[in-house]
Write a structure and sequence with these properties.
single chain, mainly alpha, two-stranded antiparallel sheet, 17 helices
């Protein structure tokens, strides 16, 4: 694997994902406690919704900038600096008790700056490795390990309810910029020097990718896949608690552990299976995990949680590789951004609304009817699986 790149550059690609994963966790995980500590509960819902809103706007816009500038590397550097500044100012605003509306605006600015990071880094890594099928999964796994490390760092500094969480986030974002500074520019075809319409400047021309049947199916199933998945993190912990579990965050992290393992296995699968069957396997895991979670046993729910990582990797990471293989190189950064928009924007927004409604429907005076809740999510995932199997055509040749 290391023979495909100079060792130092390969380490830089790993570090990019690791540091970005850590920065994301350092901001998002302690955000709820941080808002509570500074009496900003009134904006909590909107603070978290800022991420979904940013996913609709920023990735496509920045992805278009990266494609047209000829390389996503300098764009990542500047966006990392902007993210660091926004995080630090938002933390200072909370500590100084600025108006809640202004604090929320700063949180939204942070989200807009941070949203394109993973799609930009994915584009850089995919353009640098020789065999994306065998190498991208292990490199991408470093983002998940970074997330876990970011959580540990925040706890180690006792920053869960302190603005130091935002300052540590800012420092980590600057490290992303430093790491990206050592990478050579990623060469992409020139876009042209003609006048750009607002449609093109905003990156909305990426929507033309949906005219291709298989592209459209993949982008749709990525968004639809995240709708039932959106019920996992908000409602997994109370389900564990109702079964008598403690240390809920630790049990929930089992999903991230299997996610890392699955990304290492994914490389081998991609060399042997068609993309269609890897997608189908990931969606089938999604159906099965919720069915197992519906069983009234502790081991069943733990098993369902553990299957989360495998399902995510086989669908979303495979979708990123699909974009790298099937989309023209001059469109790839925008295509990765569109994928981000569909998953984190469309999927999250619809998912939180639908899963919230379904949870309320399954709540009875004596508590939540968990089997019905999980089976409902399983049914939703099954619909996505059936749609994919009937709509996706794929290439007859082996991938």
């Amino acid at each position: 694997m290391l023979k495909t790149l100079r060792r130092a550059e390969y380490a830089e690609l790993i570090a990019l994902f690791f540091l970005q994963g850590a920065a994301s966790a350092m901001w998002l995980v302690p955000l709820s406690a941080l808002l509570d500590a500074y009496n900003l509960q009134s904006i909590k819902v909107w603070a978290f919704a800022a991420n979904a809103l940013a996913a609709f706007i920023s990735p496509l816009l920045v992805g278009g900038m990266a494609d047209r500038s000829g390389s996503p590397v300098p764009v990542l550097r500047w966006m990392s600096v902007a993210t660091a500044v926004a995080a630090a100012i938002a933390g200072f605003a909370m500590k100084s008790h600025w108006n809640p509306g202004l604090v929320l605006a700063l949180i939204q600015i942070y989200a807009l700056c941070a949203a394109p990071a993973f799609s930009l880094i994915s584009s850089i890594v995919l353009s640098r490795v020789v065999s994306a099928q065998s190498e991208f999964g292990p490199v991408r796994a470093m983002g998940t390990l970074g997330w876990i490390a970011g959580c540990l760092v925040i706890s180690a500094f006792h920053a869960d309810g302190s603005v130091w969480a935002t300052y540590i986030t800012a420092i980590t974002c600057l490290l992303v910029c430093v790491c990206a500074s050592f990478l050579p520019p990623v060469k992409t075809p020139a876009f042209g020097s003609g006048h750009l319409s607002w449609h093109e400047r905003l990156g909305l021309d990426a929507l033309t990718l949906l005219k291709n049947r298989d592209h459209r199916v993949v982008f749709i199933i990525v968004a639809a896949f995240n709708i039932p998945i959106s019920g996992f993190y908000p409602y997994g912990p109370p389900a564990l608690r109702d079964l008598g579990f403690t240390h809920l965050s630790a049990w929930m992290s089992l999903g991230q552990t299997t996610e890392v393992l699955s990304m290492f296995v994914l490389g081998g699968l991609l060399l042997r299976w068609r993309l269609k069957w890897i997608f189908a396997c990931g969606l089938s895991f999604g159906v099965l995990r919720f069915v197992i979670s519906a069983l009234p046993y502790k081991a069943a729910l733990v098993t369902g949680i553990s299957m989360h990582g495998a399902s995510f990797a086989l669908v979303y990471i495979t979708a990123q590789l699909y974009v790298d293989q099937r989309v023209e190189v001059s469109w790839r950064t925008r295509a990765q951004a569109l994928l981000n928009l569909m998953y984190n924007g469309v999927g999250n927004l619809i998912g939180y609304i639908v899963c919230g409604w379904w949870f309320a429907s399954c709540t009875i005076p004596l508590g939540t009817h968990w089997p019905a809740f999980w089976l409902g999510l399983s049914g939703g995932m099954a619909v996505v699986l059936v749609y994919f199997l009937t709509a996706y055509q794929g290439q007859k040749a082996r991938n």
